[in-house]
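Example record for the data management plan.
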Amino acid sequence: MNRIDLLINVLDSTFDKESWYAPLKHAIEGITAEQASWRPTGEVTKTIWENLNHLIYYKERLVANLEGREWTHNLSGDENFYLTEQSIEDNEWKKVVERAETAQRNLRKILSKTSVEELDQYSLEGKLLDIFLHDAYHTGQIIQIRKMQGSWPSHR
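Corresponding structural encoding:
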């Protein structure tokens, strides 16, 4: 397996291909807007919705940079948790899930067209590894929130 194939494999396993742990797509599958907006009482934990906003932001920014587009939507690490406004409307939550899927698809498409030389030239490999680890970390948080609210399937 070459480096590009390895990176695509890890990208897929963090998003929708279950391997050692549940990927992000499975972690957000089947939940409502109300569940995505739920926050434990008295806790400072981010909601599932806020975590997904955060993950979307960094993938969209990386894709824009790789496509040579200027990124003008600069938000701090705390601000980007609020990239989209939370709602109890399921159609609004579905839009956020679709946005996450689009960001993933766009990054995968770019990576599949990337050469090993470009990986080295733009320090892309390190940026991708950061994204992968970041996605895995926040996916774990999302699963923990679902367990706290009782919405995580017992068969997983």
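Summary line stored alongside the record: The chain has seven helices and no strands.
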